[in-house]
Amino acid sequence: MLRRIHSLPGLIAAVVVSILALTGAVLAVNPALERAGSSIPPTGEVSVADLAQRVVAHFPGVERIVRKASGTIVVYYFDAEVPGAAVVDPRTGVQIAPFAPSAVTRWVTDLHRSFLMGDAGRAAAGTGAFAMLVLTVSGATMLATRLGGWRRLFGRVRGTGSQRLHAQFGRIAALALLLTALTGSYMSLTTFGIISDGMDAEPAFPSAVNGGAPMAVGDLGALRAIDVADLRELGFPYPGDLTDAYALTTAQGAGYIDPATGEMLSYLPNGFARRVYETIFMLHTGEGLWWLGLALGLAALTVPLMTATGVMIWWKRRQAMPRIKANARAATADTVILVGSEGNSTWGFAKALHDALTGAGHRVHTAPMNRLAGGYRNAERMLILTATYGDGAAPSSAKQFLARLQDVRAAQALPVAVLGFGDGRFPRFCQFAKDVEAALAAKGWPQLYPLHTIDRQSAQEFSRWSAEIGALIGVDLAIAHTPPPPRTVSLRLAERVDYGAEVQAPTAVLRFVLAQDRPAGFGRRLLGDRLPRFEAGDLVGILPPDNPVPRFYSLATSAHDGVLEICVRKHPGGLCSGFLHALKPGDRIDAFVRPNPEFRPAAGAAPVVLIGAGTGIGPLAGFIRRNGERRPMHLYFGARDPQSDFLYEAELTKWLADRRLTRLNTAFSRATDQAYVQDRIAADAEALRSLITHGAQIMVCGGRQMAQGLAKVLEEVLMPLGLDLVTLKAQGRYVEDVY
Ligand SMILES: Cc1cc2nc3c(=O)[nH]c(=O)nc-3n(C[C@H](O)[C@H](O)[C@H](O)COP(=O)(O)O)c2cc1C
């Protein structure tokens, strides 16, 4: 719901809000510029009477004196019937410069207030301010929810580049944007008279003035009592008209002054509404508070950037969820299908199930698991299809499911069947589906059908499961769905470096480039030949010959490096590793990239501790290679023998010399001083604690056994700091890519 509230006004109002923000940012500079160009006496030094006296000496035809919120004094006068306006020095009354408001400022102001379209534009600007208010509040709430509460609002944000940028800009600017949006909405309401700006109450013109000879303006008692800092405007009586009076407006109120006696007549102090308006005007424009104006202006500059990143996030999310035809609303559906997926293949199965049930006359609502609703009014059953990721964890479209489930009231429970998609080669096969099933049972949800698991997207197993679900609900449902192969690119092996044969750990670093022999279509002519976008730590899926199931390898380069590099250990009988090891330079493979945004060094300059063994060094080497800013990077690397499987030895030596790598610690299990990587960690405990105290992030890549042994040692290292891996994980300061 919050997401809908956030993205809908965001998309509709994107252009309006961006124009408001950009013009607002331009106008925000004015108060500071005016302030810099004017001479402002300290409070108590110059009274309005002094100022008026000095002005009259230099401008005998003065009509009115205006003090702008920035402190600038402007005199409007007639010189031989010709009107003029000048900025004057309040200490002398002498002209500093002619007053000529810039045409550009006026145009930008009009664009900001009304899009140059009169009342219709003013209404659009008001709606834009309100949309900005909704976006700021809903965005901040969403971010707080995602990070685990308001106290963690400034914690580490995970996700894709655009998600991280969107959140970073948002939280830096949130307070200022909230102030701008609130005050802007208020001002818009006063423009249309929905809220009073307090201007409706004006002092009545005095029924009688003394009519005697006018005093010198500098002697008028009522003006002597007012400091120039409080002046808003002083209007002079019409020359020669003894029935006219001075019209004075100050920060506190307005009244008339008798030119013959200097007495204040019919004074009306500002009411509450006026005082509120003046404060809000100042908070919105920064006039009178130039530094606030600049801060608001800077914050406003983030709005177009947030609009751009927001649109990118929305677009990616739309792309990620395939189009489901005839998707019933949550409130009307009789069957709810929830999907947990990272790479989209589970969506393919869900869509086939949705179409088959809809074809059989059911009203089906299909959505990501993250959108579990508080209740489904007409639903009779729920079917949950979910993959498992990482080390038995939730895929991205299901990350919030378990937390949301806790908020669902017992009365809303539905008969539910969970179908897990996984890969039997992972030790925690379909673990997330198992966790979901257990959580539902603990919440008392009745079981429609016991948990069933599907290994490597088997079409036969899915068909069997769907037939059994169909039998339960009285529909013939043997669905034949074969996942389409992912869209691949053709890569050519450019180079390989082999290690480890002597120590029974044959490992190859393989470097691929784009194969260039495809027919040149329009897209290729337009965009040129390019590798797909990827970062070190992302995964490449490779299809071994005659096998539709991809195998995934961590990438050791980013697309900027111009090559796609992986590190592959040959496993006895391994279909894909055997295939890759048999490749010679010039041979081709078909591959696709899968982002792995969780496994990246956090932004910033904090130290990074990289720990890897064997081929696990691949992505870590990629991070060091891209460490152009030379942030501290410490690598712990474990292998068998320095003479045989010291992967990346030459590169690591070079990176140490050019400081992309701060320190290298190696452990070799078959060398004379036999050691494992966790032994080095234990020996370095003190230095590691110091790095962790300085905000270091720990990144681990390698085999599961190594990761388990390492975790034990790390817990001991952390204990004296009162920290543990669970805490570091929650802060995004301990990340793993294990296999
Ligand atoms: C990086 C990665 C980690 C995985 N971790 C597990 C796991 O721990 N347990 C499991 O059973 N399957 C695991 N899988 C397999 C996926 O769950 C399986 O391929 C699933 O069908 C993918 O569905 P999706 O394309 O909808 O995300 C993993 C796959 C990848 C690429």
TrEMBL record:
Statement: the UniProt record of this protein carries the keyword Transmembrane helix: yes
Domain FAD-binding FR-type, first and last residues per copy: 486-602
Origin: domain of life: Bacteria
Protein's name in the database: NADPH--hemoprotein reductase
Keywords of the record: Flavoprotein, FMN, Membrane, Transmembrane, Transmembrane helix
InterPro entries reported for this sequence: FAD-bd_FR_type (IPR017927), Flavodoxin/NO_synth (IPR008254), Flavoprot_Pyr_Nucl_cyt_Rdtase (IPR001709), Flavoprotein-like_sf (IPR029039), FNR_nucleotide-bd (IPR039261), OxRdtase_FAD/NAD-bd (IPR001433), PepSY-ass_TM (IPR005625), Riboflavin_synthase-like_b-brl (IPR017938)
EC number(s) per entry: 1.6.2.4
TM stretches of this protein: 123-148, 169-189, 289-315
